[in-house]
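Re: the 184-residue chain
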Amino acid sequence: MTHDFIDMHRDRLGVEPICKVLQVAPSAYRRRAARQRNPGLRSARALRDERLVRDIQRVWQANLRVYGVRKVWRQLQREGIEVARCTVERLMHAEGLAGARRGRAVRTTRSDPAAPCPLDRVKRQFVAERPNQLWVSDFTYVSTWQGFVYVAFVIDVFARYIVGWRVSRSMHTEFVLDALEQAL
């Protein structure tokens, strides 16, 4: 960024005055400019990084862009390319390459602040003296390979058994009411 600014204004202001204001050594600017003109002057690490980036991108592309650092590094090891895992991590980060992450953020609760909140009729005291005196219900989700499955169930507090339940692939009121009907 600094070097681009110097390149834009060097003809009008000169390199040394700009470097002095920006607190950049003129020799560092000239060394970078020389390396841009002649890539052979770059450091051994920069040259090796350039080769490794091509290999990393090749492996990442060949594996449908889902491989992360560890798998890319292992594949390079299998191919006989000796490189440290932290180097693969640094280069992948610099190139903006990342593996697929398991799971996804799913918003399962969509509360309506305008809707009235149901009353807590048992005051959080989940005890019953006989069967069918108190039922409680819940609604949750389970992650599967096919996606999320939503489960509604009704529990008899006395027996601590599920007396009604339903499963659905969508989060709708009807299947919750079906669980209550089954319990009845």
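The helical segments are 2-13, 15-22, 26-37, 44-62, 69-78, 85-95, 173-183.
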